[in-house]
Amino acid sequence: MAHVTLTLPNGATLQLERGATCLDAARKIGVRLASAALAAKLDGTPVDLSAKLENDSTFEVLTFDSKGGKEVFWHSSTHLMAQAVKRLWPEVALGAGPAVEDGFFYDMERKGPFTPADLVRIGKEMEKIVREDFPSKRIEMPVKEALAFLRKKAGENKFKVEIVNDLVKAGGATSVSFYQQGEFTDLCAGPHIPSTGLVKAFKLTKLSSAYWRGKEGNPSMQRIYGVSFPAKKQLDAHLAMLEEAAKRDHRKLGAELDLFSVQELAGSGLIFYHPKGGLVRTLVEDFIRSEHLSRGYKPVFTPHLFKSDVWKKSGHYDNYKENMYFTEIDGTEYGIKPMNCPGHIMVFNSGSRSYKELPLRLFELGTVYRHELSGVTSGLFRVRGFTQDDSHLFCTPSQLKAEIKGVMEFAIFMLRSFGFDDFAITLSTKPQKAIGDDRVWEEATTALRDVLIGMKLPYDIDAGGGAFYGPKIDLKIKDALGRLWQCTTVQVDFNLPERFDVSYIAEDGKKHRAVMIHRALLGSIERFLGVLIEHYGGALPLWLSPVQVIFLPISDFHAPFARGLAARMEKSGIRTLVDDSQEKLGLKIRNAQLEKIPRMLVIGEREEASGELAVRLRDGTIEQGIPIGRFIEKTLKEIEEKT
Hints:
The strands form 8 sheets. This protein has an 8-stranded mixed beta sheet with strand order 16-20-21-28-25-24-22-23. Strands 2-1-5-3-4 form a 5-stranded mixed beta sheet. Strands 6, 7, 8, 12 and 13 form a 5-stranded antiparallel beta sheet that branches. Helices cover 36% and strands 28% of the residues. The mean pLDDT is 93. It has 20 helices and 33 strands. The N and C termini lie far apart (65 Å). It has 4 domains: 3-63, Beta-grasp domain (Ubiquitin-like (UB roll), Roll), CATH 3.10.20.30; 70-246, 2-Layer Sandwich (Threonyl-tRNA Synthetase, Chain A, domain 2), CATH 3.30.980.10; 267-303 and 338-535, 2-Layer Sandwich (BirA Bifunctional Protein, domain 2); 542-641, Anticodon-binding domain (Rossmann fold, 3-Layer(aba) Sandwich), CATH 3.40.50. The chain is globular. By secondary structure, the protein is α+β, with helices and mostly antiparallel strands.
């Protein structure tokens, strides 16, 4: 009998009989792995464990410990929830139910609103379906048969009919897949976990509303969110993390610490920085600027809007238009920039460039605007206007890998400076919607991969996750709660240089095409500040705190001495505040703790007489007998070293 050869992630190979299943392959690797398996990947494509092995392929088992495994588990959980809803309310029309970053949701159309009490009912029905342990079965149907199946119950599956028709229009699909568990069958690309009994723990977390497929004017849907796990202890840990995350919510802390606000009058997704928040942002941006200048980056400033001709030439008009804002000036259409790349290209192309000028690293703290629906904007994390620490590097092909390596080293330095040491790196490859031929995509992808390997940085592959103009490296940071946040992006682009004729005169006196690297280190400044606030629970490091030292005079008699000390420290470069209110000392200390000020100095007779300070830290620790000069010296050193 013929065999197939599977190549595992570690490079090892495995042989099985043709027609064996992915589960058979998992069992051959190990019994424990097979028992934890949820799905598999063949040549990078997720498939069911029941999928047959017909050809030599790369092979990977997906467990809940992997990103892909979580996605399969959570998507399968949406079907579990939808099955429970259909049992309780057969008239509900199902929309779409994807896995998301921390769980899943399903959009549904129902005449009356779901209530918290309904979530309890749905949860109990889901528990019943878990106990019934229905196997998951994939069913392939020709499009005509699928549409007839979906239309059997009048209007019930109108959203699914729309999805199938769109698949036919977009890619000429001739067949679609369904998944069946018990009496419930739903349109789905899959894959799914083997059975409903694997969902040992779950919680339906919240209700919201959304437009069908996220477009205003479409039917309004009710969205039910949830999260699920293979074991109860995992759910318990997750819920504890959510409780702690709620305490650290940057929107809550932003208001309490008077850092920023969103003004209803101005519109959602637009941030107003208050003086304290503005100072924090300024400190971050000053640090960014100084580090770029020290590494040979050249600062530039580009306009906020260009004629649409620019966006048509760049490809954004065809590939990104729905995310942009447009206006008209003197009868000509202009696009407000969602990205800084074309502006930097036009700076590069403003004159003839020699190979001696390369690499040329252009840098801008560039504010951009992207269309977001009101319902999805969220604090600093999802906004319509934001600023990127954006840079575009122009180099020769021979300089490419060295420049990528320099960017990665720079990114890791910057993120560690803000207290992040745990990273997750992903290499994203060519998406379906892309410009440029396969040759340049492979060349760019190889350069990124070689740098990661050379730097011995572990990474995952996100097949098809690249930008429309080039592959990229994404670097995520892990915060104090173990959550991952996207920050650094490094994209290699051979395509925009072609579109804009980005060239230089080489040593041979001829014109050669330059290579372009798109790069952001912290990413969106807004989003990064939100992550910082939540990571530190609002208690920002000393160097970033709006007020670094607060003086708490015991009485009015001691206030002049406190103000004198504060002035001395301000001249040294320490940001201070004197609380000379009439409140009792205990309340002053409490207020300073709520404002999360790093250093509190109680000033009384002893301090005036001795010239020594009692330093109270945010965690309640008190250091006695610190000479004033030594305190200033130590504080300035901590600020300088960003400890």
